[in-house]
Specification:
Elements lengths: L24 E2 L5 E3 L2 E2 H8 L3 E4 L1 H16 L5 E6 L6 H9 L3 E4 L2 H9 L7 E3 L6 H10 L3 E4 L2 H14 L3 E8 L21 E2 L4 H11 L3 E7 L10 H14 L6 E3 L17 H16 L4 E4 L3 H4 L3 E13 L3 E6 L8 H5 L6 E2 L9 E6 L8 E8 L7 E5 L20 E5 L2 E6 L4 H5 L7
Parallel strand pairs: 4-20, 5-6, 5-13, 6-7, 7-8, 8-9, 9-10, 9-11, 11-12, 12-13, 15-17
Antiparallel strand pairs: 1-2, 2-3, 4-14, 14-15, 14-19, 16-19, 17-18, 20-21
Helix pairs in contact: 2-9, 5-6, 8-9
The structure holds pyridoxal-5'-phosphate.
C-alpha cells in the first residue's frame, strides 16, 4: 500500500492542506496517499465507495484538545461527541486518548460501552430519551445524564425510584444565542427543541424540579449553541448568558458544548482548536471563577478532516452548453450533507492527484433524486470512467447519517496508518439489507 518507484512531485497540492487528513500527500505514482496508503490501491482492495480515515490524525486532534486544557491548567474534560462518527474503533481511539464521551441515544451508548468506555465517563444526551434508553443508562451506571425537559426529569426520577440509586444530572440550557451557521444545526436559540429557556423561566423551573427530585443530583449545566461555527464570539455570549443564570448556584460541572467548524474547502479558515478551547476556558473562568469543571464536547473538529470518501467514476455525461455530470457509485446514501444543508465539498481524482484541474463538472450520485449531487461545479483533472474520485473532509456526519436509499449497502470504514490499511467496519451486503425483513416462508 505504500508509494511506487518514481519521485513525488515537487509541488504537492495535498501535503499541508487543511482539508485532507494530516500526513496526506501525493505519492511517487502521482496518486493521493492517506496514512501512507495509496488511495487508488485502497479502492482496488476494499472497493468503493469507502470511508478512509487516518486514525493518527484523530489522535493528534484529541491531544490538541486535551493539551489546550492542560496548558491553561484548567480542570476540564474533553468529550467525544460521538454522533459525528459512531464507529466502535473511533470510540476506542477517544477512550485511549483519555477523552470522555457524549452519547445521544441508546445505540450510541451501546457502541461506547462496546468500545470499552468506562460508564462513569459517559454523558447521555437527547431531547427525547425513551424510558428504555433512560433505564439502559441507569443500568449501565453512566456518569451523567443531560436532562432536556420537565417530562424527562419526572420520568428519570420515577425510574430511579423503582430501581434504587441516584443519578448525577446536567440541565441543558438554551442561552438564546444564534451563531451564524446553517439553521438546521443552530441549537441555542430561543425557538429550539433542545433545552430549557433562560428568559422564559423554564430553566429556573428545571432547577427546582431536579432539586426536588429525590433521586437526581444537580451536578451542573450544559449548553451547545450549534455546529460548524467559525466565530468565537457567540461562545462568549453563551457563557455570559449561562453565568447570569447559573454562576450564583456554583455548579460543579459546566459543559459548554461542541461546535468548532472545520475546513471543508481550502478557502475555509476555522479557528484553531487552541483558540477555541482558550475562549471557552477564559469565559468560564472570568464569569464562574475556578469552581466548575469545564467540559468541552467536540465532534466534527475531532474527526471531520481525518476522513475522506473514495468513489469510482462510472459515467461522464456532457449536456452541451449546460454542464457535465460525473456520476459516482455513492452519493446521498453515504453523504447526506450536501442535500441536507447545501454543504460544499472539494473533490480530486486520486489517480492524478497533482494534475492541474482542467474540467468544471458536477459530481452526481447514483440515487433516484435530481438533488443527489455531491459537488456542484467541481474542478477536476480530466475525469474518466474508472477513476477514483475523492471527497475530503467527510469524516464527520457522513458514516453517521449513511442510509440504504435505493438499496445501496453502506460503505466500509478503513483505517490507514503507517502504510497499513485495516477494515474497522465491513461493507454492508445485500443479505444485510434483507436480514431484518420478516417473510412468511
Ligand atoms: C449536545 C451536542 N454536543 C456536541 C455536539 C457536537 O458538535 P460538533 O460536531 O459541531 O462539535 C453536538 C452536535 O450536534 C450536540 O448536539
Amino acid at each position: 500500500m505504500t508509494s511506487g518507484q518514481a519521485t513525488a512531485p515537487s509541488t504537492d497540492p495535498i501535503a499541508g492542506s487543511a482539508v485532507y487528513p494530516r500526513g496526506s500527500r501525493v505519492n511517487e505514482a502521482g496518486h493521493l496517499e492517506i496514512g501512507g496508503c495509496d488511495a487508488v490501491e485502497l479502492a482496488r482492495e476494499f472497493g468503493t465507495p469507502c470511508y478512509v480515515y487516518a486514525p493518527d490524525d484523530i489522535r493528534a486532534r484529541a491531544r490538541q484538545f486535551t493539551a489546550a486544557l492542560s496548558d491553561r491548567d484548567a480542570d476540564g474534560e474533553v468529550l467525544f461527541a460521538s454522533k459525528a462518527a459512531p464507529v466502535t474503533a473511533i470510540y476506542a481511539i477517544a477512550r485511549e486518548e483519555g477523552l470522555s464521551v457524549d452519547v445521544a441515544s441508546g445505540g450510541e451508548l451501546h457502541t461506547a460501552l462496546r468500545a470499552g468506555f468506562d460508564p462513569e465517563r459517559v454523558y447521555m444526551h437527547g431531547n427525547n430519551k425513551s424510558e428504555a434508553e433512560l433505564a439502559f443508562a441507569f443500568e449501565s451506571r453512566v456518569g451523567c445524564i443531560v436532562v432536556d425537559s420537565l417530562d424527562e426529569v419526572a420520568r428519570a426520577d420515577a425510574l430511579l425510584a423503582e430501581r434504587g440509586g441516584g443519578q448525577d444530572v446536567l440541565i441543558r440550557l438554551t442561552p438564546g444565542i444564534k451563531p451564524s451557521t446553517h439553521s438546521y444545526v443552530q441549537t441555542g436559540q430561543v425557538d429550539s427543541k433542545f433545552g430549557f429557556g433562560l428568559a422564559d423561566g423554564q430553566a429556573a423551573e428545571a432547577v427546582a424540579a431536579v432539586e426536588s427530585a429525590a433521586n437526581l443530583r444537580l451536578a451542573g449545566f450544559h449548553a451547545h449553541i450549534g455546529s460548524q461555527i467559525f466565530e468565537l464570539e457567540p461562545y462568549v455570549r453563551a457563557i455570559e448568558a449561562l453565568a447570569e443564570f447559573a454562576a450564583s448556584m456554583r455548579p460543579r460541572l459546566l459543559n459548554v458544548g461542541g461546535g468548532l467548524g472545520i475546513a471543508y474547502t481550502s478557502g475555509d479558515e476555522p479557528p484553531s482548536i487552541d483558540e477555541y478551547v482558550g475562549v471557552k476556558v477564559d469565559g468560564v473562568r472570568r464569569l464562574f471563577g475556578d469552581v466548575p469543571r469545564i467540559l468541552i464536547e467536540p465532534g466534527r473538529s475531532l474527526v471531520g478532516n481525518a476522513g475522506v470518501t473514495l468513489y469510482t467514476v462510472g459515467t461522464v455525461k456532457e449536456i452541451p452548453g449546460v454542464r457535465s455530470y460525473v456520476a459516482v457509485d455513492g452519493g446521498m446514501s453515504d453523504n447526506l450533507r450536501p442535500m441536507l444543508y447545501g454543504s460544499r465539498y472539494e473533490a480530486l481524482i486520486a489517480d492524478r492527484a497533482a494534475a492541474a484541474a482542467d474540467s468544471r463538472v458536477t459530481i452526481a450520485g447514483k440515487h433516484c433524486e435530481s438533488g443527489d449531487v455531491l459537488v456542484t461545479d467541481a474542478e477536476l483533472a480530466d475525469p474518466k470512467p474508472g477513476d477514483v474520485l475523492v471527497t475530503p473532509a467527510t469524516g464527520a456526519y457522513g458514516y453517521a447519517m449513511a442510509n440504504n436509499y435505493n438499496g445501496i449497502p453502506r460503505p466500509p470504514v478503513i483505517f490507514c496508518s503507517g502504510g497499513d490499511a485495516r477494515v474497522v467496519v465491513r461493507r454492508e451486503t445485500y443479505e444485510d439489507l434483507t436480514a431484518r425483513d420478516v417473510t412468511d416462508d
